[in-house]
Amino acid sequence: MADIAKKYAEAGQFDQALEVARAIEDPYYRSQALTYIAGKYEEAGIKAEASSTLSQSIEAIKTIKDPSSRVSALTEIALTYAKSGMGRKASEILSQALKVAKTEMVDNLVFKSKSRAFANIATKYTEVDQFDRALRVARAIKDPDYKSDALANIAVKYAEAGQFDQALKIVRAIKDCDKKFSALADIACRYAEAGQYDRALEVARTIKDPDYKSDALANIAVKCAQAGMSTQASEILSQAFELAKTTSELDALTNIAVKYAEIGMSEKASAILSEAIELAKDEAVTAAALFPKLALHWLTIKLAEIAKKYAEAGQFNQALELTRGVEDAYYKSQALVYIASKYEEHGKQSVSYTHLTLPTN
User: Fold this and answer.
1) What is the chain's pLDDT, residue by residue, as a tens digit (361 residues)?
2) In terms of DSSP H, where are the helices of the chain?
3) 61, 169, 164, 79: which is closest to 130 by C-alpha?
């Protein structure tokens, strides 16, 4: 019923949406539906009704018995208040969520519900621009995984706000290497978006994981190209490509191919995608020796993914041609639908959609 209420709200049929939402017995799902409807009211500029609906959602939240669900509902409604420009109200509700997490929730060996709640609250504080509070909450998280995740999110938010020194300071405190490298890659990209290309490269080159480092360099290259620095873009993307090759990961190679297309080097993009196809076939042959029944299925999945990358690179004929080698009907359908969406994004709605007929086998 919550989904039905949301669909009514998306269609602008608010009376029906509210009627369905109010009929939901479970207070958690009722609050979720009401919060969503309030957001749609806000998007439509109907502020009085948005405020009234949020108040109804809060009343529903008060009756939620499970503390984890209550915290989740409170953080969602806080975000909706923040988007409505009511930052103080959002902060008050996040304080309520934090109180529930502190007093009613615990971590155990299997479920880290309290740490998960703290991480969620910390992230929501950044979304209402309360970075100091977010940090305090994150530093109080006991579980190291959730703590690293929260700190990484906060670091990136600081970078998005242009506070790069603070962002890097937070990253240094992250214990989980994967989260640390992911955050550094995001921060490097934010530097590039701010036009600080040298600093972006400095940060990217501190990343020890080749996947994240390659991804960071590729994003910086695109930003350089967009700024008219085509020579630098090509050089940086070449470095990213060399790193991607060391990982032997198909996704890394195909992502680089798309970046080459984005900077106008379509032939290079095509060459890399062709290389990825051959690599996928070689890996399938190797896998067949151990898992003969799974190897062909794996190859089908990979070819479908590469077809999508051809579409992202704007090379639609190659994308469609590759789908003909995808034998599994489900993955072929998924690839064709994705290619169709990319046709539209590239302004090619006039292209015949007979090419995109979904398989029936």
Assistant:
1) 788 889 889 888 888 889 999 999 999 999 989 989 988 988 888 888 888 998 899 899 999 988 888 998 998 888 888 887 787 888 888 998 999 888 887 777 667 888 888 999 998 898 888 889 999 999 999 899 999 999 999 999 999 999 999 999 999 989 899 999 999 999 999 999 999 999 999 999 999 999 999 999 999 999 999 999 999 999 999 999 999 988 878 888 899 999 999 998 999 999 999 999 998 888 888 877 777 778 788 888 999 999 999 999 999 999 999 998 888 889 999 999 999 999 888 775 444 444 555 444 4
2) 2-10, 14-22, 27-43, 47-61, 67-83, 87-104, 113-127, 131-139, 144-160, 164-172, 177-193, 197-204, 210-226, 230-247, 250-262, 266-290, 292-312, 316-323, 329-345
3) 79
Cα→Cα distances 75→32, 79, 89, 97, Å = 11, 6, 12, 7
Tell me the backbone φ, ψ of residue 3, rounded to 5 degrees: -65, -40
Residue by residue, DSSP assigns 287-307 as HHHH-HHHHHHHHHHHHHHHH
- Burial state string for 237-253 with b = 16 or more CB within 10 A and e = fewer than 16: bebbbebbbeeebbbbb
Closest CA to 259 of 221, 230, 314: 221
156's CB contacts (< 8 A; 6+ apart) are 167, 183, 186, 187, 190
